[in-house]
Amino acid sequence: MAVTVVTMEVGNDGVAVISISNPPLNVLTVAIIAVMKEKFSEATRRSDVKAIVLTGKGGRFSGGFDISAFQKVHKSDCKKPVVAAVEGLALGGGLELAMGCHARIAAPKTQLGLPELTLGVIPGLGGTQRLPRLVGVSKAVEMLLFSKPIMSEEGKFQGLIDDIASSEELLRASRLWALGIVERRKPWVRSLHRTDKIGSLSEAQGLLRNAREQAKRTAPNMPQHLACLDVVEEGILHGGYAGLLKEATVAKELVLSNTSKALAHLFFAQRTTAKVPNITDVGLKPRHVKKVAIIGGGIMGSGIATALILSNISVFLKEINSEYLLKGMKTIEANIQGLVTRGKVTQDKGRKALSMLKGVSDYSEFKDVDMVIEAVIEDVPLKQKIFTELEKVCSSCCILATNTSTIDLNVIGEKTNSQARIIGAHFFSPAHVMPLLEIVRTEKTSPQVILDLLTVGKIIKKVPIVVGNCTGFAVNRTFFPYMQGPHLLVNLGVDLFRIDRVIRNFGLPIGPFQLQDLGGYRLGLAAGKEFANAFPDRTFRSPLTELLLKNGRNGKSNGKGFYIYEKGSRPKPDPSVLPIIEESRQLMNIMPGGKPISVTDKEILEMLLFPAVNEACLVLDEGVVARASDLDVASVLGMSFPSYRGGIMFWADTVGSNHIYTSLKRWSEIYGSFFKPSRFLEERAVKGMPLSAPATSSPKSNSKL
């Protein structure tokens, strides 16, 4: 086990090198900071020390502060010159530490940034004051608000870095610079005292005013953005030390805020998803997956192919005919070109990625592939036919994966003898952009196959979550009530555009009806039938989608749905859909006394989200996921649940299990079994337990995980 240490070595040149070692990222803890302060005090006292170089061991300066250290750090200014020798990365508190030094020498390609706002807090060690003084207000605001890191080369151009030296020469160059300050050949710069990069007061305030307006538009429920700008402005108006005092106060308040707690919870939860009991902890070694075949070149297949080739994995794309194959290949090319145009990948990387792609019309290339991913339409007989063919043409160690979003894997593989290597690889659309990968295991899937797909997920920069096999798996199953609940409310007389507005105000990017427009109605109908067959006691069947299709509407794909879609403009509510909704209401005839129900926005929100929480309880109770935090990550990355609310289960616990249970029970008595609370939810409510608390006994169902 790695030992956390801070060491100091004094060279013959009179330079003390203080080194931080806390592998793998040299994260700063309260203990490290305390020892570091002792080393600085010792170096300041010693007569044989002329100057100090601060660095990190293992090729990294520091990845930032342990979240728990925010409130316990105090600032001081050393009376001897201090130079930061920065390599690998200096993020968060690590960069703040470097900015507190009198100069910064960096190795090439070193990452520099202040990502604290993504955790609901602001920099707490002077970053809000020193960064604007080193790079100017405009660049500082960009780096702070967007948590956008820069490389050391840009850092030198901006003034954040004083010089760049190779990794081999970094310490030597830093020592020489420190001695140069002692000998007055180099400037002794206290970044907190600088004002030359701030510009005029009116210009700085204008930049901050514009940044505030942008923050209100893009992050309306994130208090840390406006708080950060206020602290920056305090330092500009009243000086760096006044800014530090305000920064310390505000940072402490934000650490204790609900937003920070939610974002910190997600931060750690996301790092836990890849730890799978009896898979990643039993000594198995992942096999190399270098060649992958994909069956189906539609939106999903082409997106998956794009993600793989961008990570240097060769792809054979198979389609049923040359026309469809050409279309799939062109879609992949367009995906790559779009990333190049937006500056996400370089032209060279785009060309290299496309060279890893080959289109095929038969199975001849499949004999040598390490994995096949089936990504055809949600048609059970078709998928069964494909898997029986794959069993014959692929090697016995080839992983057989399906991208199905709802269908039980046992049904897909029931006509094969290869259940041990059949696994779900459920990507979310667009697959080369969306970060979540649901890895679906059956009771027969081998641990080796699960580990191999986990490894592929990491290679292609996805967040993998291993889930058990059932209709809809974890994400789509948890949220199927969220997609059906709006239809229930609309048929009870609630305005559909109000429903979407309530959900957007809560923090999701779009409401459920606009989401259905994006997905297409036929896909929604197919998924709805799967859920109705699997969970007939708690599904709501509405004729509305079929009426829309009958009326020639299919959402965004043909420009007509609940909203009007015109090129170059935002979707607009379509009033001509209202007669179709009225027809659905007449057919359903569920409005009490024939009149629309009267509900508040809060009730609408709860009637949509509480059934999803209830289903999440069942998913947990049945062992479909290993832990509640996996559902939180999945809800944020797969369904765009607002990250600052911590995910569906974290949010539910802030609401309280008792309120959720009593609300669902009341609605079930009025509106039917769609709202019926689960036994798991009832037990937690009665005991006053958090919904996310680990189960005291093993899951009741057929051990999914």
TrEMBL record:
Compartment(s) of residence: Peroxisome
InterPro entries: 3-OHacyl-CoA_DH_CS, 3-OHacyl-CoA_DH_NAD-bd, 3HC_DH_C, 6-PGluconate_DH-like_C_sf, ClpP/crotonase-like_dom_sf, Enoyl-CoA_hyd/isom_CS, Enoyl-CoA_hydra/iso, NAD(P)-bd_dom_sf
Lineage top rank: taxon: Eukaryota
Principal subcellular localization: other
Transmembrane segments: 15-36, 292-317
Annotated pathway: Lipid metabolism; fatty acid beta-oxidation
Domain called 3-hydroxyacyl-CoA dehydrogenase C-terminal: residue spans: 472-565
Gene3D superfamilies: 1.10.1040.50, 2-enoyl-CoA Hydratase, Chain A, domain 1, NAD(P)-binding Rossmann-like Domain
GO BP terms, alphabetized: fatty acid metabolic process
Catalysed reactions, as listed in the record: (3S)-3-hydroxybutanoyl-CoA = (3R)-3-hydroxybutanoyl-CoA; a 4-saturated-(3S)-3-hydroxyacyl-CoA = a (3E)-enoyl-CoA + H2O; a (3Z)-enoyl-CoA = a 4-saturated (2E)-enoyl-CoA; a (3E)-enoyl-CoA = a 4-saturated (2E)-enoyl-CoA
A Pfam family per the record: ECH_1
GO molecular function: 3-hydroxybutyryl-CoA epimerase activity; delta(3)-delta(2)-enoyl-CoA isomerase activity; enoyl-CoA hydratase activity; NAD+ binding; oxidoreductase activity, acting on the CH-OH group of donors, NAD or NADP as acceptor
UniProt family annotation: In the central section; belongs to the 3-hydroxyacyl-CoA dehydrogenase family.
Protein name: Peroxisomal fatty acid beta-oxidation multifunctional protein AIM1 isoform X2
Organism name: Theobroma cacao
